[in-house]
Amino acid sequence: MAPRRSTMADKNIVDRTKAHRNADLARTVRQTRDRLSQQPGNPAFDREMLRLHAGALTGRTAVLPVLAAAVAAAGLVAGMGPQVAFWAALTAVAYAGLGLFAAHIAKKEVTDIDVSSVRVLLLVAHAVTGLCWTWFALLSCEACQIDQFSTVKGVVLLFAVAATAILAYALRGALLATFALPVVAYIGLAVNLWNPVDAAMAGLLAASLPFFSYIAGHLHRSAVMLLSFRTEKDGLIAELETAKSISDEARRRAEEANLAKSRFLASMSHELRTPLNAILGFSEVMAEQVLGPLENETYRDYARSIHDSGHHLLALINEILDISRIEAGRYKLKEEPVDIARTVEECCNLVELKARNKDLHIVREFEPDLPQLHADERAVRQITLNLLSNAIKFAPTGGEIRVRAGWTAGGGQYISVRDNGPGIPAEEIPVVLSAFGQGSIAIKSAEQGTGLGLPIVQGLLDIHGGRFELRSKLRLGTEAIAIFPASRVMASLATGTAHARKASAA
């Protein structure tokens, strides 16, 4: 059995029927927040730095064993004996062990790394390699052919310090753990400080250790910054993916709801109009006594009431269908030349009887020689009738309705309907222009309607590229203005076409 959708689903962005997807989204958001909050000192952040250090050692630890092998080869040529070869082999083994341990760390998941124990083990491994370099610093060569052997050892140690500073910058203390003891051994035990060259080399090596420590610290801070930026970038990407997933889900549900609404309205339109036609037809036959007299006057009044109520319900159905098509973007204009003055005049004639029943006087003011509009005549007629119906509904008995049509300042055309009714408070105008919205004073002082007339007018004008203005003051009346753009005036269209032809000919 399919899970039932919650009755409050429209208020929730996430689809309740996809619990696993909701859990994934929540987990992604939580992980994103955690990663964005990572700072140096945070275990998760330190794990990333340890993995970065392990990755650097995995691919580049061969540099120092190669240097040791080169020194051993040179020592053998110089007659140092097997001790230098044994030292080189031991150094290679120490760095191989460090590389293997680093490779093991690099393969682990970040969450599986124990920061404290891994850090200690890495520092111990670096200290072991430092013992090898300490042995090198203590090497002597009485019978070899190298006159400045101490200087050569200092240069080799200097290269090793520089290489380690570049390779091990991600682990704080790695450089000192490796070369603090070798430098001390070189300066204290293996160098003749009375020799100016040896003394200078000792001073240079002693100064290089804090210098390269500073370089390693600077690289470490840069790595921290880059890692922080990368973490924030990954977090933002995760946030965007989460937002996109939620947006896609909301869009899908909105499309489903819109499709369901369209199907419902299409079905209800057919289902309601079929019995309404019968109600309207039979009630009219009864009210007009076509098939014979109705002796009881009350029955005839009932028939007329049924007929009027049916007309009201049919108008309501038509308005709901119109606003639905407009909101869905499916209202198709049948554009043709429209004489706006003639159309407005016909609409005034249609509502004249209704206005007389309320003792209202309709004043017509049309500017002469208005060119035709390129518009949908049915839409123009509906706009005018809706504005006139509202004016008749809210104008007081014995009042006046002023209907105008003419030019706008921008070269377009307008239809204006003004009444002297109770008016609308300024704060209620957005409510009146919303679907099914009605002002408080209008509800109290006039017969209630559906609240769809003005939204339909506004929607039809938007489709034509025009705009709708509603000007109202309390106890002074309301003026509704439908404005069509200059681009829809046939004279301007003809002028634009002529200009285009002249430009193409030129």
Automatic annotation (TrEMBL):
Reaction(s) catalysed by this chain's protein: ATP + protein L-histidine = ADP + protein N-phospho-L-histidine
MF annotations from Gene Ontology: phosphorelay sensor kinase activity
The keyword Transferase is annotated on this UniProt entry: yes
Domain of life per record: Bacteria
PROSITE patterns (alphabetical): HIS_KIN
Transmembrane segments: 57-78, 84-106, 118-138, 150-169, 174-194
Keywords, ordered alphabetically: Kinase, Membrane, Phosphoprotein, Transferase, Transmembrane, Transmembrane helix, Two-component regulatory system
Entry EC no(s): 2.7.13.3
Domain annotation Histidine kinase: ranges: 267-488
InterPro entries in the cross-refs: HATPase_C_sf, HATPase_dom, His_kinase_dom, HisK_dim/P_dom, HisK_dim/P_sf, Sensor_HK_Regulatory, Sig_transdc_His_kin-like_C
The keyword Transmembrane is assigned to this record: yes
EC top class named in words: transferase
Name of the molecule in the record: histidine kinase
